[in-house]
Design brief:
By secondary structure, the protein is α/β, with parallel strands linked by helices. About 45% of the residues lie in helices and about 15% in strands. The chain has an eight-stranded parallel barrel, surrounded by seven helices. Helix 3 links the parallel strand 3 and strand 4. The longest helix has 18 residues. The protein is globular, with a radius of gyration of 17 Å. Bound molecules: phosphoenolpyruvate.
């Protein structure tokens, strides 16, 4: 039985005061919640303050990105050890905005994945196709290529520390959510790929989140799909009620 996992990606949003208020609201509203893992990934400059606000709560701390080198002359970058030092448990890797706006490649994501695993951060590795790739019938090829590239050299044991997020690029921040059938088809393909590349045990254990315009009113049916184990949430993670509304969708 895979434990559901809902994570919020705050992206480059909020100011310090509103980020703190959001974290405090989530800490309060998630009190006593059981049977689900929750996390938020604030902008890196707020990670420290948000970690303090979430201390002792049911909401774990994550980062939106990390650099693969341990230290040195890498202006503007942040290391795995620095994020661990601030209490981060998770790191989002290969988000489509990093792939398509910032030009991150599978090879770079792969280096970051290995650095995160070696340093004790749990990677949330994102994969997802563009609209023209879906329309050209290439969705599963893209997913396979990103999976193999981003996860190259990851051992069976390490795979147990990875979460995969399927995020169709055309559904991110657009209000166009994938239908439960469209999402489940890709999640099942990812589960089969895990079995092909690793084994049945790994395929059954790894959590696969869906991301792309998840809101309280569409979460229940998405989260009810057999291979959807949670959600990576952008816009709706910026409001306590909406994020907690998505979490509530797990129990409906
Ligand atoms: C995301 O940023 O990962 C995301 C899924 O965004 P949104 O929920 O806003 O589509």
């Amino acid at each position: 039985m895979r434990r559901p996992f809902i994570a919020g990606n705050w992206k480059m949003n909020l100011d310090r005061a509103s980020a703190l208020a959001l974290a405090e609201g989530l800490a309060k509203q998630s009190k006593g919640l059981d049977g689900v893992d929750l996390a938020v990934c604030p902008p890196s400059v707020y990670v420290d303050a948000i970690g303090r606000a979430l201390a002792g709560s049911n909401v774990a701390l994550g980062a939106q990105n990390v650099y693969h080198e341990a230290n040195g002359a890498y202006t503007g970058e942040v290391s795995v050890a620095m994020l661990r030092d601030l209490g981060c448990k998770y790191v989002i890797l290969g988000h489509s905005e990093r792939r398509h706006i910032l030009g991150e490649t599978d090879a770079e994501i792969n280096k970051k994945t290995h650095a995160a695993l070696a340093g004790g951060l749990l990677p949330i590795v994102c994969v997802g196709e563009l609209l023209d790739e879906r329309e050209a019938g290439q969705t599963l090829d893209v997913i396979r290529r990103q999976f193999d590239g981003s996860l190259a050299g990851v051992s069976e044991e390490q795979m147990g520390n990875i979460v995969i997020a399927y995020e169709p690029v055309w559904a991110i921040g657009t209000g166009k959510v994938a239908s439960p059938t469209q999402a489940e088809e890709v999640h099942l393909a990812l589960r089969n790929l895990l079995q092909e590349r690793y084994n049945k045990g790994v395929a059954e254990a790894v959590r696969i989140q869906y991301g792309g315009s998840v809101k309280p009113d569409n979460a229940t049916v998405l989260l009810a799909q057999p291979n959807i184990d949670g959600a990576l949430v952008g816009g709706a993670s910026l409001k306590v009620d909406q994020f907690m509304g998505i979490v509530a969708g797990l129990t409906k």
